[in-house]
Design goal:
seven-stranded parallel sheet; single chain
Length: about 230
Amino acid sequence: GMTLLVLSVGLAGCGQQDREKDTTPDSDYQRRLIERLIDAAPGDIIEIPEGTFQFDRSLMLTTDGATIGGAGMDKTILSFKGQVAGAEGLLVTASDFTLENLAIEDTIGDGLKVNNGKNIVIRGVRVEWTDGYKTENGAYGLYPVQTENILIEDSLAIGASDAGIYVGQSRNIVVRNNRAEWNVAGIEIENSIGADVYGNTAINNTRGILVFNMPNLPQPGYQTRVYDNDILNN
């Protein structure tokens, strides 16, 4: 079977030098996490501990089969308030990817973008712009595009200047038990095939849940089911 490598970023090493390093500013943590993502191998579990970590550039993952997990969407916080480089918080171009139990805050552009992957799980992830709704906030919170077999559940998107949860040009999708607040569009399914959208709460968005096809894209969407959602005050 596949050996799971548990990589605990920020907790590895027990020497005095390592402990001192962990109390230095987050630029050190940023560097180590970027290196860990670059060096990721299939099957790696990259654990991010409880705390708020500051990043000034995008994080990227290109390796299939990795899991990135935190201690909870209110406990492990990746803050991009000082972001100066990159368009997203986290950009994933990989398959068999899971992101769970952490928050991505205040990105310049999209919070999490997943491009061209298969078998994607996004669970217990919060993407938020913490200064409230502004037109200069990033466009999309959770943003998988051109993906296949995707599950987004138990997640929260707040303050996106376009869509909180947006699935585009994808196939075989479940979006369930999420909450979208104060976005222009709460949840949006565009040019996608076989999406089930249920158990979600969309509140205080301009529009709650949208399903549509844009012209001139490679794939027209069909077979989307939207049911048992709470759509309030949009």
